Amino acid sequence: MTSVFTDFAQVKVGDSESLVKAISEADIRRFVDMTGDDNPLHVDAGYASSTPFKEVVVHGMLGASFISTVIGTKLPGPGALWLSQSMEFHLPVRLGDTITVTCTVLAKHERDRLLDLATRIVNQHGHVVLSGHGKVKVLEPPKAEVVDAAGPLKVAVVTGGAGGIGRVICQRLADDGFCVVVNYHSGRAQAESLVQRINSGGAVRAVAVHADVSQPDAVEQLVAAATRAFGGISVLVNAASPRIVAKSLDELRWADVQQQLEVQVKSALLMAQACKPAMITAGYGRIINIGSQSWDGVPVPGWTAYALAKGALVTLTHYLAAELGPAGITVNCVSPGMTDTAFISGVSEKQQLMAARQIPLRRLGAPSDVAAAVAFLASEQAAYITGQSLRVNGGGSMS
């Protein structure tokens, strides 16, 4: 059965609805059966005649219960939740009386979808038998499930898309049907070669866009270029990262840390801010940050600046997930272990072999391993996963 919820926007201050009810002996009997309140004042005419009332007096809450009828069926109607009520009983209701129950909107609170109501019951003589004030919340109607044969918008922006892992992520997303915006800063030749390969089928499904994503103006231009090319953005992969230059504590300067923070954390924040409106418009949002095992694994000597930035990126992931979740946007992190790319060219072959032997799967990661995790988190299958850091490290660290 489909429920018809009240349109809160249509309810106005001053709106009023009423219900007229003649109270019968059957009503009293049903109330007694339901509540167990068989006070003889309400059910025994002989007893009632010996009291100052002289006649059977209807339960006060029986009459008041019809306020609920007005609220639930008339004003505001279906979807109403009666939160509170204050009332005064001025006169008794007698068996056989006809009462008119009225609710009137006194105030409307848009943000919380609340109504303040004046409640009033009068008898057939026009005498007020009850007056009070109530508070009612109008529930939001359930959102209809929209089935789109074309599926959600599939447009991904990948920062650092010309890098070793970034290129493979772009190719994997393109293989999964995404249009891809390949962002690059210094790897123009790699980005254009990748775009040419993706577009080799004839259709334009990838574009290369130069932008320093640590700069607000460049971020705005990148997002604008993506929107012009493909009509919107539904997935953001923050993969931009400077090369690691290992430095000891004595050699490390704050400028080294600042560079990592600018390219990895600042850019991810700026990109999330810029892509949020497009994702809301698309009705689909996935933000995936490329982290690293370095922030929670065994510390690598000299990688302090890099690990600090990656740790901050994971923290940013958690906070963005909490804030953007109500908008239907998920935010997750993929944290690779040592991966076989040019990024680790400064690590000796011996160190790489030793690292591989210490991993349960006995090999270094491949860029395709990381890309597969990104593709999953970008998909509809990961709709209920957010705020997580997915370790792609062959078991190199576990939790």
Task: Summarize this structure briefly.
With 399 residues, the protein is an alpha/beta fold. The protein is 36% helix and 22% strand. It has helices spanning 25-35, 40-43, 45-49, 60-73, 164-175, 188-198, 216-230, 254-282, 304-324, 349-357, 367-378, and strands spanning 16-22, 80-89, 98-109, 114-122, 128-138, 155-159, 179-184, 206-210, 235-238, 285-290, 329-336, 389-392.
CATH names the topology of the largest domain as Rossmann fold
For the sheet with most strands, the description reads: 7 strands, parallel
Which CATH architecture of the largest domain?
Answer: 3-Layer(aba) Sandwich
In the predicted model, the low-confidence regions spanning at least 5 consecutive residues are 144-149
Oligomer: single chain
- The CATH first-level class of the largest domain comes to Alpha Beta
Q: Level of helix content?
A: 25-40%
Helices and strands in order:
Blueprint: E1 16-22, H1 25-35, H2 40-43, H3 45-49, H4 60-73, E2 80-89, E3 98-109, E4 114-122, E5 128-138, E6 155-159, H5 164-175, E7 179-184, H6 188-198, E8 206-210, H7 216-230, E9 235-238, H8 254-282, E10 285-290, H9 304-324, E11 329-336, H10 349-357, H11 367-378, E12 389-392
Describe this structure in words.
The protein is an alpha/beta fold and 399 residues long. It has 2 domains: 8-138, Thiol Ester Dehydrase, Chain A; 155-392, 3-Layer(aba) Sandwich (Rossmann fold), CATH 3.40.50. The protein contains 11 helices and 12 strands. It has helices at 25-35, 40-43, 45-49, 60-73, 164-175, 188-198, 216-230, 254-282, 304-324, 349-357, 367-378, and strands at 16-22, 80-89, 98-109, 114-122, 128-138, 155-159, 179-184, 206-210, 235-238, 285-290, 329-336, 389-392. The strands form 2 sheets. It has a 7-stranded parallel beta sheet, with helices on both faces. It has a 5-stranded antiparallel beta sheet with strand order 1-3-4-5-2, with helices on one face.
